[in-house]
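Researcher: We plan to redesign the surface later, but first we want a full-length starting point. Tokens attached.
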């Protein structure tokens, strides 16, 4: 099969470079032809991609030309209906139809310029302020400035509607595999809607949740954030409805997807394979007892709680040190200064080392994660692969991935954190036992081969399903697809005989 890997990422080289997730998938499934389709290709990169199994399609190629006459009126009407579906909870079910109507109007080109026009801003503002709009009642009535900002952000999110790659002809693909969700879903949704191309959605961390976290500190008014939240929520729900199979990176994300309306029968948890599973574990423990704290230096990272616990542990263990490994997210500078001020009383015993990868966990006897939101699953797996025992807060994927190989404490409470770390610092045999068990568990869950084999089965399952009749062919019965007209070996590129 020809499989399009659709991603929102602009730094596509990190996806296609040797050892990356996309490259491992392509190399592990040589019976398929993969084409990487980043929505925001870096300028000047052409098709020079390191992996010869993954090549870049011209995703930056947009349809050009103005939107005029009847098509312009149709596009503005569809855009108004889409915004109305976001602003009024009573009309939310019309979101998919409005989205596809806007996409149909975008086929002739020029939709990007239209959505930035004054007419589009007026259409958005009127729909947003319509009587009974629940969003305005909850988040506040939008002013003209809100409409200008929201129009710009919505145009960026809807820009993939102008991509030309999903049109018919020799460049057709047999399957769309969306990585991460969000706007990358749009071309795949259109390919399914207009051409019957099946869709697989993989989320290594819920895209919608990350969007919501990003909007917390975004420099937009509350009405704008509420409107963009509603858009990404409805886009995620439509993606879950249309995907033939959904492959979250953890059971924790699966529960979020089901909460957003995903069908449990179409979900397959596939842990993200990592090359770190084959790396050797960290070396011997440091001579002095040391805690290695890992996480974002932000309020949800829990560093202040860890520093408070460290202060009490120093009274029990002479010479105890704390090494902090993390980055400061935008907007958390004040919190980072408070953490450094709190650490000053410990002198050289508490050092900030910056983030240098999961191998930094080897600098401690125990790896400490005290955040209130939990780490990314792959990061936690790579920390476990160092062979150091992990103490973490019972949030997110921590319980699922650690299982019986780590120790969990309630978030935001330094007392249990003190007692748990103390128990491990005083028991070398237990540290070694938990570290080995954690490494073995991470190797089982995050090895590359099981992940690749899981997607081989996913693709086979979708290839065996009868595709729905595309809308474009519905009026031409003679062009209806014929199930089983070709043997399965044809689609897999297998030569028999």
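Model: Full-length starting sequence:
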């Amino acid at each position: 099969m020809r499989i399009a890997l659709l991603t929102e990422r602009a730094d596509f080289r990190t996806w296609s470079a040797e050892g990356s997730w996309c490259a491992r998938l392509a190399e592990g499934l040589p019976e398929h032809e993969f084409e990487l389709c980043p929505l925001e290709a870096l300028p000047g990169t052409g098709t020079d991609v390191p992996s010869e199994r993954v090549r870049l399609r011209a995703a930056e190629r947009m349809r050009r030309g103005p939107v005029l006459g009847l098509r312009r009126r149709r596009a503005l009407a569809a855009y108004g209906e889409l915004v109305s579906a976001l602003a009024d909870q009573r009309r939310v079910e019309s979101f998919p139809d409005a989205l596809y109507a806007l996409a149909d109007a975008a086929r002739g080109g020029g939709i990007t310029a239209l959505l930035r026009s004054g007419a589009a801003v007026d259409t958005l503002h009127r729909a947003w302020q319509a009587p009974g709009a629940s969003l305005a009642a909850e988040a506040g009535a939008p002013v003209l400035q809100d409409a200008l900002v929201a129009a710009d952000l919505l145009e960026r999110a809807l820009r993939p509607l102008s991509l030309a790659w999903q049109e018919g002809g020799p460049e057709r693909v047999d399957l769309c595999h969306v990585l991460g969700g969000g706007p990358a879903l749009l071309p795949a949704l259109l390919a399914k809607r207009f051409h019957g191309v099946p869709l697989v959605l993989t989320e290594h961390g819920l895209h919608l949740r990350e969007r919501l976290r990003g909007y917390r500190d975004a420099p937009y008014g509350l009405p704008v954030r509420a409107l963009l939240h509603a858009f990404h929520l409805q886009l995620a729900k439509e993606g879950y409805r249309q995907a033939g199979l959904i492959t979250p990176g953890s059971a924790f994300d699966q529960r979020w997807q089901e909460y957003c309306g995903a069908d449990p029968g179409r979900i397959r948890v596939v842990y993200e394979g990592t090359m770190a599973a084959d790396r050797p574990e960290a070396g011997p423990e440091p001579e002095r007892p040391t805690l290695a704290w890992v996480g974002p230096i932000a309020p949800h990272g829990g560093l202040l709680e860890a520093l408070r616990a460290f202060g009490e542990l120093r009274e029990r263990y002479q010479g105890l040190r704390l090494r902090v490994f993390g980055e400061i997210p935008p907007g958390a500078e004040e919190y980072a200064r408070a953490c450094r001020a709190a650490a000053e009383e410990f002198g050289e015993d508490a050092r900030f080392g910056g983030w240098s990868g999961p191998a930094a966990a080897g600098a401690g006897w125990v790896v400490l994660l005290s955040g209130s939101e939990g780490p990314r699953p792959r990061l936690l797996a790579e920390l476990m692969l160092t062979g150091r025992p992990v103490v973490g807060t019972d949030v997110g994927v921590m319980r699922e991935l650690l299982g019986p190989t780590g120790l969990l404490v309630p978030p935001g409470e330094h007392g249990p954190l003190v007692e748990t770390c103390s128990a491990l610092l005083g028991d070398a045999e237990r540290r070694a036992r938990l570290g080995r068990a954690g490494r073995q568990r991470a190797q089982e869950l995050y090895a590359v081969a099981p992940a690749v084999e899981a997607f081989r089965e996913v693709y086979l399952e979708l290839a065996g399903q009868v595709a729905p009749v595309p809308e474009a062919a519905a009026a031409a019965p003679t062009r209806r697809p014929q199930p089983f007209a070709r043997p399965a070996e044809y689609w897999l590129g297998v030569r028999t005989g």
